[in-house]
Structure prediction request, 96 residues.
Amino acid sequence: MQSYDYNMEKIKPITIEMFYTLTCPNCKVLKHLLNDILPDFEDKFVLKTTLANAPIGMIRTLKLGIHAVPTLLINNEIVFREVPDKQVLINKLKSY
Prediction:
């Protein structure tokens, strides 16, 4: 007879997507901020960066109504259209 432990299921990480451009100074600040904060959340989040002025990025920005960078999405929902304060970002991530 086999025994199964259903509590050991792997939970899929939450996707954070950051839209940026190469010349945007605020984008660099936000990316650095995310790289500092996300290790504290272990494997709960996965960061995806999308170059907004690349062909695929342009299509996604049009579909999502993104007109400025940096823009941060969590689970395909826009949560920030600027660089948030560090504590505000941490509190937002803790709410997931």
In short: The mean pLDDT is 91. Strands lie at 14-20, 45-51, 71-74, 77-80. The first strand starts at residue 14 and ends at 20. DSSP finds three helices and four strands in the chain.
